[in-house]
Amino acid sequence: MRPGAGPAIRATALSKCYGSTRALAAVDLEVGAGTVLALLGPNGAGKSTTVRILTTLTAPDSGRAEVAGYDVIRQAHLVRASIGLAGQHAAVDGRLTGRENLIMVGRLHRLSHREARRRAAELLERFDLVPVADRPAHSYSGGTRRRIDLAASLVSRAPVLFLDEPTTGLDPRSRSDLWDLVDELVGNGTAVLLTTQYLDEADRLADHITVVDHGRVVAEGSPEELKRSIGSERLSVRVHELEQLFTVSEAMRRIGGHTAVADPVAREVTTCTPDGARLLTEVIHGLDGTGIVLDGAELLRPSLDDVFLALTLRGGSE
């Protein structure tokens, strides 16, 4: 990336239509070096269109974007030389072996033949692909082709990496390995733009999240900021004896100041609260000496799933 070029990725008022369909409407985003931005949204929200514009595969109708300090329209060739891309579908040549695919990518990035072979061997080892490295790629399973594609996106050690739903089709171990690799890359200064349908993946990897729906940004912030934005925690307390349920329900309502819902079948009382840990402590103190025995308590914090559903349903109703 050029020194002093600012954010690794910067987009301002990006808009794109396909006929009468509005794919993007004035989208802004920034990704700093050594950080991960997760771009979330339902199918058709505009995530892939954003990635296609930023990787020079599609031109915007209006707006401006820079990647690695280069304009995606006027300096497209310099952008392409500065990025790695793993798209939704594995871009692997089935006639070549896995090793040959990686060497070819290295040569396209102007590595010497020796360096391309060395880099290919390194990535084959990293992605646990050595046993199949010299088999034609058309014989690979979908998950193996995906791993070769991900390895190819890293051949050039680009300062900016686009991962468009990178772990689709991967087994849990391969997903975990990729997450560790992303951590390592980010620690060395790589900027990553990630789109994913797996919200645990965004929660695990992202420094910042942008949620898009119907081509517009509907929310942005850190994972924790977004979780806090949608409301209270839920505190559930289980009693040992059913006849104690009403007493505990009243205590939670009185102390917490919110409605407490009793479930006789589960012997649970649940309430929403902005400070679940404090309420739980005060409820326990309030029951001290009453002889009431609690079988357990659970504090449920909002998840990114809750955020996603709340924001996209809200956006869809407008």
Give the helix/strand layout.
Layout lengths: L8 E10 L2 E11 L4 E5 L6 H8 L7 E6 L2 E2 L4 H5 L2 E4 L11 H11 L4 H14 L15 H12 L6 E5 L7 H16 L3 E5 L3 H7 L2 E6 L2 E6 L1 H7 L3 E7 L5 H12 L3 E4 L4 E6 L2 H12 L6 E7 L3 H13 L2
Parallel strand pairs: 3-8, 3-9, 6-7, 7-8
Antiparallel strand pairs: 1-2, 1-4, 4-5, 9-10, 11-13, 11-14, 12-13
Helix pairs in contact: 3-4, 3-5, 9-10
Explain what this protein looks like in three dimensions.
Its main location: membrane. Helices cover 37% and strands 26% of the residues. The protein has 318 residues and is an alpha/beta fold. It is built from eleven helices and 14 strands. Helix 9 crosses helix 10.
What is the highest CATH level, the class of the largest domain?
Alpha Beta
**Cross-sheet strand order for the largest sheet:** 6-7-8-3-9-10
Percent range of helical residues? 25-40%
CATH superfamily of the largest domain: P-loop containing nucleotide triphosphate hydrolases
Membrane topology: Peripheral membrane protein
Domain ABC transporter: 9-239
Protein name: ATP-binding cassette domain-containing protein
Keywords: Antibiotic resistance, ATP-binding, Cell membrane, Membrane, Nucleotide-binding, Translocase, Transport
